[in-house]
């Protein structure tokens, strides 16, 4: 009969469904909590968890709406606010809201400069620019991922996307140079090496060099 206790138990039950991988049940329960407790002190967390559940189900538009509401809800801890901000930007990118994603990633980088996800956000910012058709502006943003000695997935993807941007701008020689760099220098990332070789072939096709393109594809 203690409604506050019931709310907490229902939240824990929904979380347990999420933890065991039953994301459909978790989504339904979190969303029912939103209906039953619209002024909950856990509102930001409930919205976030509902978004996470929908994201796991591949329902990116619904997830995005939950994250957007969570970003405006009060009572979030600093770590939860950080997670919400990242997920909002990611879900906007996944649903092709490039301008909104660009703003969200830029805001994330300003608000959480020491986050473990800063490189994710830096890549996301550049990728959103590229997706919006601003390949030339995206290039210097991708290059920020190449600074320093650190080499990780974002380094490789940044280099690859610089090649894609040059390809989009029909600057074929610069594009090839970036793809060759990926092929030669990132042996720990064979899938991206393979993609780089395929992109070289695409450049050669665009340059009307079918024999050389065929060689790359073979």
Explain this structure to me?
The structure is a single chain. It contains twelve helices and no strands. It is mostly helical and 218 residues long. Helix 3 packs antiparallel against helix 4 and helix 10 runs antiparallel to helix 11.
Q: Count of DSSP E strands?
A: 0
Give a short account of the largest sheet.
none
Q: Any idea what the radius of gyration is?
A: 21 Å
What is the strand content? under 5%
Count of helix runs: 12
Alpha-beta classification? mainly alpha
What's the SSE pattern? HHHHHHHHHHHH
Indicate the low-confidence ranges by residue numbers: none
User: Level of helix content?
Assistant: over 70%
Overall pLDDT: 97
Cα(first) to Cα(last) distance is: 70 Å
Shape label: elongated
Spell out the blueprint of helices and strands.
Blueprint: H1 3-19, H2 23-36, H3 43-56, H4 60-72, H5 78-94, H6 98-111, H7 118-131, H8 135-143, H9 153-168, H10 172-185, H11 190-206, H12 210-217
Helix pairs in contact: 1-2, 2-3, 3-4, 3-5, 4-5, 5-6, 5-7, 6-7, 7-8, 7-9, 8-9, 9-10, 9-11, 10-11, 11-12
């Amino acid at each position: 009969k203690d409604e506050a206790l019931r709310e907490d138990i229902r939240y824990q039950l929904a979380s347990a469904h999420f933890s065991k991988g039953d994301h459909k049940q978790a989504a339904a329960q979190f969303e029912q909590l939103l209906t039953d407790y619209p002024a909950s002190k856990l509102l930001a967390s409930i919205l976030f968890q509902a978004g996470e559940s929908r994201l796991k189900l591949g329902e990116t538009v619904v997830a995005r709406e939950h994250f957007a509401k969570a970003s405006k809800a009060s009572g979030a801890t600093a770590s939860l606010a950080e997670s919400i901000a990242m997920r909002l930007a990611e879900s906007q990118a996944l649903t092709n809201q490039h301008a909104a994603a660009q703003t969200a990633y830029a805001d994330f980088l300003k608000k959480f400069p020491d986050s473990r996800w800063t490189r994710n956000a830096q890549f996301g910012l550049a990728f959103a620019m590229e997706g919006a058709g601003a390949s030339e502006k995206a290039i210097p943003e991708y290059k920020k991922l190449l600074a320093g000695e650190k080499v990780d997935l974002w380094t490789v993807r940044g280099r690859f996307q610089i090649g894609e941007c040059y390809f989009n701008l029909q600057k074929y020689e610069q594009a090839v140079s970036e793809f060759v760099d990926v092929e030669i220098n990132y042996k720990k990332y064979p899938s991206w090496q393979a993609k780089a070789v395929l992109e070289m072939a695409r450049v050669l096709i665009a340059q009307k060099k079918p024999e050389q393109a065929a060689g790359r594809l073979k």
